[in-house]
User: What shape does this take?
Amino acid sequence: MSQRTIELHDSVIATIVLDGGTTLITFSHAYIHQSDGVPGVDPGSGWSQRAELRINRSSTPDVPENGPYEISDGQLELDDVAYRNELPIPLSHDGFIRLKLSVVDGDGRDSEIAVTGRDIELRLIGEAEYIEEFS
Assistant: This one.
């Protein structure tokens, strides 16, 4: 059975919107690695898909003025479990979360985005588009 994960370092964020204690991160390109083994490690295929990441009861992150934001590195912590440079699919967690992203903004500047919250949910949007085989 295939497993999937979003590789943060190959993904692009279109917008980051703060609304009443919720941070909504919209990916214009989420790079999804799909594998029969361990995604991001074992051979498989690469796909592109739009996605939304909703963090509720969140802190207010410092967001660079100009997007899009190309992710160069990142880490997600769910309670005491850390995911280095990946978002698991599916992703729905009720508990402490911390997301740290290193990005290059639309002006070519390196920035850090950090947000904490109390629950998180990932929603994939539309159809995934095939990109490549991953060996």
